[in-house]
Design brief:
The protein is α/β, with parallel strands linked by helices. The protein is built from 24 helices and 16 strands.
């Protein structure tokens, strides 16, 4: 029977496929498809790993004879019995033979199926045997991964072999670092129990242009391994075991969506000029150097936000050194062919922790409010050695093109002085070492109300301003943007937020300096005309969002909208006032693009 699960729509489109459930404890399991002619070899690899684990357990039994409690020996016997269970082995092989899953994935998939059965058992003793099964599966997967030649991989898998059956990921949560493994991966979409519209996981999902629903509460409990599901990323809906009629309807929507994307793609090299001749700059947000080519191909006029922190993630605690960072930044600058590249210094903390966190830092992340704690520029200033390495690398990359250095989450005059002093010290250090570097313009992100309210002080020190609307909304409204329980209060149309955005744009322009929005509002077509009306002329978003925003700009005459924007900003319900005024203003404008 078909079941519907509702959550928050965070990345548009439709995904249809078999469910792959991933528990948070299995985040290191690689998922990839094998070719048909590799099935036999993969089954042999599985058997070899099982035989090795059996030998290890047998050896362990010999080692623990004597004073060892009989219960421990009995436990090893249970584990050996599970490894030799032919029904379990046959079911695991079936995932490889029928689905062409790699061996690690097959073990994890079968474990998920059996875990559900154990959870439903009435006998408490039998329910507790699930832990034995998990321990055996973990040992088996660890052995497989050690001999795979793939370095263990990630739950989201870097390998992009396409199977015959499309698959979608279902999990309680996915970290932004793990989400990055979606690039070139096997999954067509994902569903999580937790999360908000502008959590970093949701942002990365949009950047990958894959349908996603978060905050679906019990999705990972309701959906079973290998269920057919539909992810409706427009409505925030997940349909489990859809009927043939519903399935065909959504397949039609998939085809229509692709046709619309193809149509919009034809605008990619057309200048973004409004109907009344206003030239608008459209920039791209990227996470990794490999994203630069896609940004250029999509028609971006530069990179408005390079989230450098993703260079630091999924590294097992080893940070990139200066040379590695320099080469990454240099590659992006060269790929942009003279177009500007804005590199944000590392924005670590909150929902983007580093692998190498100290015990005290981990305690802070889990027991306090990380969004209010040691993150972004606060983190960098607290670790000047790491910060100096990054600044030197960025300055060195600037000799290859136009580089803008962006400092995140500054909120205090002392932080302004400290950050600028570190940049100057990095220059002095490079001069002292005789290392070539280039000029950079330095900007600040406006992400907290304090920064917006003391903007004139910022404009004395910085060359440009970038508005991070995601955090600005979070901190203005005191709402954790990753918490689905308060997601309904996360309101970009809130009058206080719109007032801060509009005043930041207008004050920065009055000072003769540039201002850009690089948060999610920039890529949301619902806000394009409003932002144009209050004076914004530079937007930065994921490359996949550029065509839709460009189309909206090409269809907009800005001047008639300005008076209605002023009325909306002064209203108690800006959204309603803006909607009515916008309709009147645009009624006579022909829509030809």
């Amino acid at each position: 029977m078909s079941v519907q699960v509702f959550g928050l729509p965070v990345s548009r489109g439709v995904a249809i496929g078999r469910a792959v459930l991933v528990a948070s404890s299995w985040v290191d399991v690689a998922h990839y498809f094998i070719e048909a002619d590799q099935v036999g070899a993969e089954i042999r690899r599985l058997k070899a790993a099982r035989d090795q684990v059996c030998r290890e357990f047998e050896a362990l039994k010999l080692d623990v004879q004597g004073d060892t409690p009989a219960e421990l020996v009995a436990l090893l016997d249970v584990h050996l019995m599970l490894l030799h269970d032919e029904v379990l082995a046959s079911a695991t092989r079936q995932w490889i033979e029928e689905r062409h899953y790699n061996a690690e994935w097959a073990v994890a998939a079968q474990l998920e199926m059996l875990s559900r059965q154990f959870d439903e058992m009435e006998d408490e003793y039998l329910r507790e045997r699930k832990a034995d099964l998990e321990q055996v599966a973990e040992r088996l997967i660890r052995t497989l991964s050690a001999h795979s030649g793939r370095g263990g991989g990630s739950a989201l898998g870097p390998v992009s072999c396409e199977g015959d059956v499309p698959v979608v990921l279902v999990a309680n949560d996915i970290s932004p670092a793990d989400m990055m493994q979606f690039k070139g991966g096997v999954f067509r979409g994902f569903v999580t129990d937790v999360g908000g519209r502008t959590s970093h996981t949701a942002i990365v999902a949009r950047s990958l242009d894959i349908p996603a629903v978060v905050g679906a509460r019990d999705a990972s409990r309701i959906i079973r391994q290998d269920d057919w599901i539909i992810i409706d990323g427009d409505a925030g809906l997940v349909i489990v075991d859809p009927s043939p009629m519903i399935l065909e309807e959504y397949r039609f929507r998939q085809r229509q969506g692709q046709l619309e994307r193809d149509r919009l793609a034809r605008l990619r090299h057309r200048p973004a000029v409004s109907l009344d001749g206003q030239r608008i700059q459209l920039l791209a947000n990227i996470e990794l150097p490999s994203d630069a080519a896609a940004a250029v191909e999509a028609g971006a006029e530069g990179v408005g936000l390079f989230r450098s922190e993703f260079l630091f993630m999924n590294r097992g605690g080893r940070l990139p050194d200066e040379q590695e960072q320099y080469e990454a930044y240099r590659d992006v600058v060269i790929a942009l062919r003279g177009l500007p590249v804005t590199i944000r210094t590392i924005d670590i903390g909150a929902d983007k922790p580093l692998d190498r966190m100290s015990l005290s830092e981990l305690r802070h992340e889990h027991s306090l409010n990380p969004a209010m704690g040691l993150r972004a520029i606060r983190w960098s200033l607290a670790d000047p050695g790491m910060f100096m390495v990054q600044l030197r690398a960025i300055l060195r990359a600037a000799q290859h093109g136009s580089v803008r250095l962006l400092v995140p989450m500054i909120s205090h005059p002392g932080e302004i002085r400290a950050a600028l002093d570190m940049i100057e010290r990095a220059r002095d250090s490079l001069r002292h070492d005789g290392v070539a570097f280039g000029d950079v313009t330095v900007g600040a992100m406006i992400e907290v109300p304090a920064a917006a309210l003391m903007l004139p002080i910022f404009l004395k020190h910085f060359d440009f301003i970038s508005i991070g609307t995601n955090d600005l909304i979070q901190y203005t409204l005191a709402i954790d943007r990753a918490d689905e329980s308060v997601a309904h209060l996360y309101d970009p149309w809130h009058p206080a937020l719109l007032g801060l955005v509009a005043s930041t744009i207008q004050t920065t322009h009055a000072a003769g300096k540039e201002v850009c929005i690089c948060g999610e509002m920039a890529g949301d077509a619902e806000f394009t005309e409003m932002l144009l009306a209050v004076g914004l002329r530079s937007f930065s978003m994921h490359p996949s969002q550029l065509p839709a925003i460009k189309q909206r700009i090409l269809r907009t005459e800005i001047a008639p909208l300005a008076p209605h924007a002023a009325l909306a900003l002064a209203a108690e319900d800006p959204r309603a006032v803006w909607a009515s005024g916008r309709v009147r203003a645009l009624t006579a404008i022909p829509q030809t693009v």
